[in-house]
């Protein structure tokens, strides 16, 4: 048995399933070779784009397999359990947080992995239980690739907050962290460059508890306002019932946010690490080579955000009381 485990683990080293291919029967998954380099890109989609240049990922070789094998293979890998899941409302510093966590070579940081999202949304659309597949996928991504690696942090897509119960079922004891920001500031950022969840219909509206007839009547900003209302209501509900969660606010500042996140995850930051984080936080989370600058909010929140701002204020009261 030891020989089999060794063989499977060695064969799969630096390989992960990265794309779900739906079929009439069981879905298939396409695999990609990551190479030996650490994962440092702001998003895992950036990592995939970079790794396409590696020879094992040549267009001449297409590695495709059945998802049914994921569970068996994941059981034979040396998997590091997640240290924390980081949920967020978008444009609230979550990308910078993942970049700062990645400064420490002991951390594997998985930032918005497309394959996790595809599995969750496939299960949602098809009304199928994909939790065992998701846990296997997380395990394969969390396999130890070198001796330095000790911890795994997973930053979700923003709408994965609506899959909270499924993720908590899989990881009942893992710290869950909710990062947010004033909704008016989120809206201002989204108006410049809208994410998937900020455009009606890109992500299934039902995930946000919205129906097609309703969203037709909404402007782009009005749609995002409803999405944000759902996010903050979910955060409030979770904070009131789950003691293994905390909320952090972007406006606390990058280092304060990092100290709170790492402390809750049971990680001690060294002085040198904090200094490196301070230096990195002066640059854009998504564009590490670009100095960070941001236009402050000069105008009052638009009326369409009234309910989102009310819920944000309520979440803030809970966060401060818990802190």
Summarize the structure.
The protein has 323 residues and is an alpha/beta fold.
Detailed description of the structure:
By secondary structure, the chain is α/β, with parallel strands linked by helices. It has a domain at 78-106 and 150-322: P-loop containing nucleotide triphosphate hydrolases (Rossmann fold). 43% of the residues lie in helices and 13% in strands. The protein contains 13 helices and eight strands. The strands form two sheets. Strands 5-6-4-7-8 form a five-stranded parallel beta sheet, with helices on both faces. A hairpin with a 6-residue loop joins strand 1 and strand 2. Helix 5 (114-126) packs antiparallel against helix 6 and helix 10 (220-241) runs parallel beside helix 13. The model is unreliable at 1-5 (pLDDT under 50).
Order of helices and strands: HEEHEHEHEHHEHEHHHEHHH
Widest sheet: strand order?
A: 5-6-4-7-8
CATH class label of the domain at 78-106 and 150-322: Alpha Beta
Largest sheet: 5 strands, parallel
Q: Per the principal axes of the C-alpha atoms, what is the gross shape?
A: globular
- What value does the Rg take, in angstroms? 20 Å
Overall pLDDT = 92
Low-confidence stretches: 1-5
Helix content: 40-55%
What CATH architecture of the domain at 78-106 and 150-322 do you see?
3-Layer(aba) Sandwich
State the CATH topology of the domain at 78-106 and 150-322. Rossmann fold
